[in-house]
């Protein structure tokens, strides 16, 4: 991957997504928000790669992983009017298909193309395929970390600016409410919780904190610490003994992954 190829893939990406603009030239609100997320993940992917001291070429590929990771969202929304994979299609698979059907990676080295395709295909999976090549695994894990960083950023920015009421989708349009004991137990046992167990906005926050057990790079933990992610999320959660215990537990975990 060189800078000319990198620039070419940036141009192809925006040429493709611009086809989803409304007749007045704008994106609908939800696609505009999705594009904002994509740009955030692109920046976070580059941040992680640089801070992990990856080579210049690896940083170029990492940035493209972030850019392309949600390309499947555009046709998904156009066809189904939802971003819910369970109600439509797997957006990672859709992104993989979109790239191949539109020949977006034509002319790129096969090794680079495979890394990018794998990152798009598997970034949203519960687990990575056991037979995934090591090089693809590195970049897919970085993409997964960057994706989580931006989701945390969107939530914490809404908290900091006191605009959470305008972004209720960040908490699945659920009231804060009480914590589901099932999710609390999962968090305290350092395991992932299931989305099907979410009953409240508090559960959404807790399940996102469970994501931290799947973080792959130290740089990701450092950025979460720098942006005071845990402290900000704690501001909107009930100040119950169980929630305080969860926050203390996850904070110790993050610190152990940094220091």
Query: What best-fitting shape do the alpha-carbon axes yield?
Result: globular
Number of domains: 2
Which topology of the largest domain does CATH recognise?
A: Hypothetical protein af1432
Radius of gyration over C-alpha positions, nearest whole angstrom = 19 Å
Strand runs, count: 0
Architecture of the largest domain, CATH level 2?
A: Orthogonal Bundle
* Number of distinct helices: 12
Rounded mean pLDDT is 97
Alpha-carbon distance between the termini? 34 Å
Helix content range: 55-70%
Main sheet: strands, sense, barrel:
none
Strand share of the residues? under 5%
Structural class: mainly alpha
The CATH class of the largest domain is identified as Mainly Alpha
Write the element-wise H/E pattern from the N-terminal end onward. HHHHHHHHHHHH
Uncertain spans, ≥5 residues at pLDDT below 50?
none
Features:
single chain; 259 residues; mainly alpha; Hypothetical protein af1432; 2 domains; 63% helix
Explain how this protein is built:
It is built from 12 helices and no strands. The protein is mainly α and 259 residues long. The protein has 2 domains: 3-145, Hypothetical protein af1432 (Orthogonal Bundle); 172-258, no CATH class. Helix 3 (56-68) crosses helix 6. It is globular and about 55 Å long. The two termini are 34 Å apart.
What order do the helices and strands come in, and which of them pair?
Elements: H1 3-17, H2 29-51, H3 56-68, H4 72-80, H5 91-101, H6 110-122, H7 134-160, H8 181-188, H9 201-210, H10 218-226, H11 229-234, H12 241-258
Helix pairs in contact: 1-3, 2-3, 2-7, 3-6, 3-7, 4-5, 5-6, 6-7, 8-9, 10-12
